[in-house]
TrEMBL record:
Topological relation to the membrane, as annotated: Single-pass membrane protein
UniProt keyword annotations, A-Z: Cell membrane, Membrane, Protein transport, Translocation, Transmembrane, Transmembrane helix, Transport
Function: The SecYEG-SecDF-YajC-YidC holo-translocon (HTL) protein secretase/insertase is a supercomplex required for protein secretion, insertion of proteins into membranes, and assembly of membrane protein complexes. While the SecYEG complex is essential for assembly of a number of proteins and complexes, the SecDF-YajC-YidC subcomplex facilitates these functions.
NCBIfam families reported in the protein's UniProt record: yajC
The organism's taxonomic lineage, starting at the top: Bacteria, Pseudomonadati, Pseudomonadota, Alphaproteobacteria, Rhodobacterales
GO cellular component terms listed in the entry, alphabetical order: plasma membrane
Keyword Cell membrane in annotation: yes
Listed name of the protein: Sec translocon accessory complex subunit YajC
Major subcellular site: membrane
Membrane-spanning residues: 6-24
GO biological process, one term: protein transport
The family this protein is said to belong to: Belongs to the YajC family.
Nucleotide-binding listed as a keyword: no
């Protein structure tokens, strides 16, 4: 390979490096933070689902699913990864 061939690939390599630092890396961090948030869910936490429903976690099941109470006596089963945000956390049991 001569210098001319390397010079032609240099802009392509720079574009890939910029895309990595501006798009790929922040997205990986966001996914990692979301997984940590979902794994820390506990009974009593008030959450918002990706569908916009606000409720309180009434049961955390083992098979990647939680039970959320939307209103008095209205409980729904939700996949853990669809939790968008935790509004208020409960204190851990002692």
């Amino acid at each position: 390979m001569d210098i001319g061939a390397i010079g032609q690939f240099l802009p392509l390599i720079l574009i890939f490096a910029i895309m990595y630092f501006l798009l790929i890396r922040p997205q990986q961090k966001k996914v990692k933070d979301h997984q940590a948030m979902v794994s820390a869910l506990r009974r009593g936490d008030q959450v918002v689902t990706q569908g916009g429903l606000i409720g309180k976690v009434s049961k955390v099941k083992d098979d990647n699913e939680i039970e959320v109470e939307l209103a008095e006596g209205v409980k729904v089963r939700v996949v853990q990864s669809t939790i968008a945000q935790i509004i208020s956390k409960t204190e851990p049991a002692k």
